[in-house]
From TrEMBL, chains A, B:
It comes from the Eukaryota. GO terms for biological process: alpha-amino acid metabolic process. Keywords: Aminotransferase, Pyridoxal phosphate, Transferase. GO terms for molecular function: pyridoxal phosphate binding; transaminase activity. Its cofactor is pyridoxal 5'-phosphate. Belongs to the class-I pyridoxal-phosphate-dependent aminotransferase family. Coiled coil: none annotated. Residues 128-446 form the Aminotransferase class I/classII large domain. This is Aminotransferase variant 1. The keyword Transferase applies. It comes from Sistotremastrum niveocremeum HHB9708.
């Protein structure tokens, strides 16, 4: 069914051997009579795990607004319990034993069912590609983009605007790609389609369709990293007064509200994927807790097989606690929240983060007053946790726009210099923000079939264009509204004061400093 | 203090960048006034984690033999509880948030204290080295040795006997290493010093000292993977009748017994390490449960720094549940087991596994009767979970010892062929065992500065010697005694019958087959 995409696999991936111990195990599983005895595996016997039970205490979500109830301590407790070998979907004896690299069958099945609800009719059900050129939004999450650099991977920045990737710019980049100078044409696109980190953009449906068509045209694999999927702010019901549970027990209203919200989501790349060229990454870090350290990848059989082999020969398998927690959580009430309860929690969580977003933008805009739009401004993110504050550096008294001759390797303006000054002032004044430079994708050219980076001087024109692009666009700060209301209000206030001083005419500033 | 070992770092390790977001965070931590506000991190606020409490139910270990009590359901329950922000060493709000790649400070401190108890006076407190040649015991654990093969790493097998690595053989291997033909001299040794997987050997103190001296002589980094450290069977007190808790509450007797047992352990490589050339890997997979998926590495500052950078840009950090569990478990009673209680659990666990070891050896020896020593035999492992059963294939009616001319690339004997036949018969008869071939380290020669494997025909003499060594020594089966008594008894019985048929004269065997 899926298109043959095996030419995308790296030399490393193709060279990876299956774990021979797991191979024997599978061989034996297929061949043996029922009741066969194994003396093969080095598994401690489950009767010797000193664990009789685990209880996870969570809030009940059957009330109208479970997030509001939880925040005010006005909630019913629900307990997810698992014992050694009781009726739990994932008993301790199974969850805490060695298991397959891909996780337990029970949990995989549960997550596949969730996929069917969210990404309707998923045709595929699971890579690391070191080597050559990959595409990423020109500002992206370094937790991911940094990691393969040491394997010699080169990231190629894709131009974005406030809605995310610009399809025409992506097409132009690939159309004008010169393999003789730039090496293999990029064949993987890493992107964060909702509440993009750091710019906050959410790709509209039309762009998603165009990007997928371009992926087909240029034979590109899409890695869809979607941690903020459940933090989408458009089409949420307005926040109603807390109803103390009346009408709250999975009532029709509650259910239809959730449907309505989710139905407005732009389709994921996974749900558009007819070729098997999408790897979708989900996580519960943002909607449950980061310490869960559990995510899942949905992809075609080809990629799934290689990911499983990678896991079998490295970290081996996900931890039992998180697998128990999710298995229990997704059980139907009264045992767990069930998918409906989970979505109800997510919806109200999105309402809460939307409120925090509005609080932050209001604080900065009100604080700047008439200078909003002159000193700084922002688009309103439709999802995620970040405001991408545009700092209008050209208003700075020391801004310089024609620093260097056009054939020089240095950028034309002092934007990067000024933004660093602003960042340092924020630190000194007691507020930490993330400057755009932290997220800038640095394109390093590479000759075809070369394992070492090109000397930057060997393609000065291309390199300068890239460096300039990123430097000119680095006049942004990423502000997180994930903290408390107090942190948002106080932090915004310090930021506003720091911006005022930053843009103050030189004479005023000198006076300020003398006063200190 | 540590010797400068930075020349051991791979190109990849040296090329790995720190995660710039974490860099900003650390910068800010050092510079800021108290009470500074962060708008930098994309952390969900802990008040929105839907978790109020987790309870891990475990057996109390203050009785004389907690393992015996647990196995018979005759135990007191103890509950490790952690709440959102209570008095726990690791509260949910901290444990379930993003944290440093190296884990929480609290748990690191706890584990360092445990190290001080076990490896006295550890001078260092935390690598993947792709590229070139590494040493491993000639039969080793493929879960580890397989994983770096796709990065082009070459394993060089070190001769072992029933006590593990033979120091003189290691010295000879390094002395006769020809870098012009074989590439860079091996500079890393991966070994399993206790209950070696698969051969069951435990390195005596004298060998450890000699191996460490050789590591200094030849500038080798030792990776000490020690999952069976707490399953050492020598010097255990004989199993006494269960005393129902009398004298069991951390009494002096209990304590001194534990001391005695541990004091007999050969020193770990870590405790011999004056240069900072040892990376010790510990895990609770064998003494708590594999699903915990938590281990720790103790090493010098150099390696620690690079491991942290690797973690920060890949899996990010250990999961919160396991960190909570261990933090609570190592608290002093009555909150947790404390180090003494943990050692008490381990000691009695070792007694239990020793009993299982003896059961398995007795079953096979008794089953074979007069043929024990003729058909098969074994050494008695002093630790771990495995019996390494020697199969005397030269007794097989079809054994051939001079198959090929000495300049051929094929092995001299049909040992490998016969052992595969035996393995298949075991499968068919309903018992799964692990053949030695699964664990054989395959030396593949590599020219210096070559990224591809040498064609095997280009150094036939060396290659043949290696292939022969491994083939001749592959007449072993790894038998796990980690299962139930019932599995051990039944599995051993099937194995004995299979061995009898395997060694039966051809005419007898034919008759058997005709009868079926």
């Amino acid at each position: 069914m899926a298109v043959d995409l095996s030419h995308h696999l790296s030399v490393e991936t193709k060279a990876r051997l299956a774990n021979p111990m797991k191979t024997i195990w599978r061989l034996a599983q297929g061949k043996l009579k029922a009741g066969a005895i194994t003396l093969a595996n080095g598994d401690p016997h489950p009767s010797l795990f000193p664990l009789s039970r685990v209880d996870f205490h969570i809030p009940d979500v059957s009330v109208d607004d479970p997030v509001e109830a939880w925040r005010h301590g006005d909630y019913q407790e629900q307990i997810l319990s698992t014992t050694v070998s009781g009726s739990s979907p994932l008993a301790l004896r199974t969850a805490m034993q060695y298991c397959a690299g891909k996780g337990t069958t029970e949990l995989c099945n549960t997550l596949q069912e969730l996929n069917l609800v969210l990404h309707t009719d998923v045709p595929q059900n699971n890579v690391i590609f070191p080597g050559d050129n990959f595409l990423a939004e020109e500002f992206s999450y370094p937790g991911i983009t940094n990691s393969p650099l040491c394997h010699g991977l080169n990231w190629v920045p894709v131009p974005i605007d406030s809605d995310g990737i610009v399809p025409d710019a992506l097409d132009h980049l690939l159309e004008t790609w010169d393999s003789a100078v730039q090496g293999r044409r990029p064949h993987v696109l890493y992107c964060i389609p909702v509440g993009q980190n750091p710019t906050g953009g959410t790709l509209p449906m039309e762009r998603r369709r165009k990007i997928y068509e371009l992926a087909q045209k240029w034979d590109i694999v899409i890695i869809e990293d979607d941690p903020y999927y459940f933090l989408q702010f458009d089409h949420l019901p307005s926040q109603e007064p807390h109803t103390n549970g009346v009408n709250g027990l999975n009532g029709v209203n509650g259910h239809s509200k959730q449907k309505k919200w989710i139905d407005h989501f732009a389709p994921s790349f996974l749900s558009l994927d007819v070729d098997g060229r999408v790897l979708r990454i989900d996580t519960v870090s943002k909607v449950i807790a980061p310490g869960m350290r559990l995510g899942w990848i949905t992809c075609s059989e080809l990629f799934h097989r290689h990911l499983e082999s990678l896991t079998d020969s490295s970290t081996q398998h996900p931890h039992g606690w998180g697998q128990i927690f999710l298995s229990e959580l997704f059980r139907q009430p009264p045992h767990g929240w069930g998918p409906d309860g989970f979505l109800r929690w997510c919806e109200h969580l999105a309402i809460e983060y939307k409120r925090k977003r509005d609080l932050m933008i209001t604080e900065v805009r009100t604080g700047l007053g008439d200078d909003w739009g002159t000193f700084a401004d922002c688009d309103v993110p439709a999802g995620g946790m970040f405001v991408w504050l545009r700092v209008n550096v050209e208003q700075h008294p020391n801004f310089a726009s024609d620093l260097t001759a056009s054939d020089s390797l240095l950028p034309q303006t002092n934007t990067a210099y000024l933004m660093n000054e602003l960042f340092q002032s924020c630190l000194n004044n007691g507020v930490i923000v993330m400057p755009a430079a932290t997220f800038a994708i640095q394109h390093q050219f590479r000759r075809p079939d070369e394992t070492h980076m090109l000397d930057v001087r060997s393609c000065p024109v291309l390199l300068k264009r890239e460096a300039d692009d990123r430097a000119q666009k680095s006049n942004f700060l990423r502000l997180s509204f994930g903290g408390t209301d107090d942190a948002i209000v106080k932090g915004s206030s310090i930021l506003v004061e720091t911006l005022r001083k930053f843009f103050a005419p030189i004479e005023t500033r000198l006076t300020d400093e003398e006063q200190v």
